[in-house]
Write a structure and sequence with these properties.
This protein is of the alpha+beta class and about 400 residues long. Helices cover about 55% and strands about 20% of the residues. Strands 1, 2, 3, 4, 5, 6, 7, 8, 9, 10, 11 and 12 form a 12-stranded mixed beta sheet that branches. Strand 8 and strand 9 form a beta hairpin.
Length: about 400
């Protein structure tokens, strides 16, 4: 029997039992769609997180300072001079931006503004790729001037008062009045930087020390030279902090290591999601086997007639395997389409950039084909081993 005739007969047999065929296809479809959708969404979520780092660059490091005793004193406070000396100590540091954080009350024309205050140098703009919507950013020449650059969300709050051009307006931080010299464009939040630029008022770092006696440099971000040694730089930074400030410790992070860690976690999550989807596919495969076994039982007389007129056992086996393959491949194709559509919908509502990753659909389709062969083999084998005389006698 040629392949075309085999396919025609397989299609005819499947369409003769439409409901049963639909249920078998539905089981495979749900399994494949689950695998494709979950794995694709896992890939997109990881890509979204990695894009944050790629926007800033992968050659970044950050350090957070803290006292091992728990108490901050003048003896263990990190200073601007320490920061500049650190850059001289480690040649692989291209740019360094120490910064302070203060949580004083922020008000504009008596209206409370939610946010925090960052004391920064001009290097922060260069390292974090901050773009200015209005005015300019903080300059190292500002020194102790009461100047401020506001984030996008702070600007939105000010706009509610009817202001369109915030430059030149005044905003109160604690008991100090600051003149707004710039408005930052919306900045994509990053796990690498501890503060939210969009919800901040950025002031000259020297001015920030006036806001509170407890203000101190507790963080810094660094842009490193290309191909720098991560472990060597980390060791040098920690060693310098411990030597320069009594009882001070530093927690150092590297963008490259964070990316490597995220990619490693992604592989684990992808495997886990694939296994969860695989369970659905296994259930679908069992459904195919069950329906094919029922088909074999119902078509015993047909099998006997085929054998009586010359059909070989392998012809019978091939017929039933073809039917199982058609179920699996059709269900797999529809599952891939629905899985990609589901991932697209999730990306839309989660505000992710949609990407088609070819591996999940390929794996889903390939596994559906393998499922058809694996779960269709036993019913096909059982059909081929039937005794034609006994089948012809059956009702």
């Amino acid at each position: 029997m040629d392949i075309v005739q085999q396919l025609k007969e397989a299609f005819g047999n499947l369409t003769a039992a439409k409901l049963r065929t639909l249920l078998a296809i539905l089981g495979i479809l749900i399994g494949v769609a689950s695998v494709v959708a979950m794995v694709t969404c896992g890939e997109m979520a990881t890509q979204k997180a990695l894009d944050q780092f790629k926007t800033l660059g992968t050659n970044l490091m950050s350090a957070t300072f803290y006292s091992s005793s728990g108490a901050t004193t003048d003896a263990n406070k990190f200073t601007l001079k320490d920061a500049y000396n650190l850059k001289q100590e480690i040649p692989s540091i291209k740019l360094l931006a120490p910064y302070t954080t203060t949580f004083s009350a922020i008000n504009y024309q008596g209206k409370k503004v939610n946010g925090s205050t960052i004391g920064a140098t001009e290097n922060l703009q260069k390292i974090l790729h901050l773009h200015i919507l209005q005015g300019r950013f903080i300059s190292n020449l500002d020194n102790y001037e009461p100047y401020a650059v506001i984030g996008a969300n702070v600007y939105k709050t000010i706009q509610k008062t009817g202001v369109t051009d915030a430059v030149g307006k005044q905003i109160q931080v604690g008991s100090t009045i600051f003149t707004i010299i710039g408005v930052a464009k919306p900045w994509p939040e990053s796990q690498f930087f501890n503060q939210s630029i969009n919800n901040s008022v950025i002031v000259p770092i020297k001015t920030s020390f006036v806001l509170s006696k407890y203000t101190s440099i507790n963080n810094m971000v660094m842009a490193m030279e290309k191909n720098y040694d991560i472990d060597k730089a980390t060791t040098k930074i920690k060693s310098y902090i411990q030597k320069s400030r009594k009882g001070a410790q530093a927690y150092v992070r590297s963008a490259k290591k964070l990316i490597a860690s995220m990619e490693s976690q992604n592989e684990i999550y992808t495997l886990l999601l694939g296994l969860i989807g695989g369970i659905s596919l296994l259930v679908g495969g069992i459904g195919v086997m069950n329906i094919m076994l029922v088909s074999v039982s119902e078509r015993r007389k047909e099998i006997g007639i085929r054998m009586a007129i010359g059909a070989r056992r392998r012809d019978i086996q091939l017929l039933f395997i073809t039917e199982a393959m058609i179920l699996a491949l059709f269900g797999g194709t529809m599952g891939v389409i629905i899985g990609i559509g589901t991932a697209l919908a999730i990306a839309y509502f989660a505000n992710w950039d949609f990407h088609i990753f070819w591996l999940p659909p390929f794996i889903g389709f390939a596994v559906s084909a393998a499922t058809g062969i694996f779960f269709g083999f036993y019913p096909a084998y059982r059909a081929s081993q039937l005794d034609p005389i006994q089948t012809l006698r059956s009702d």
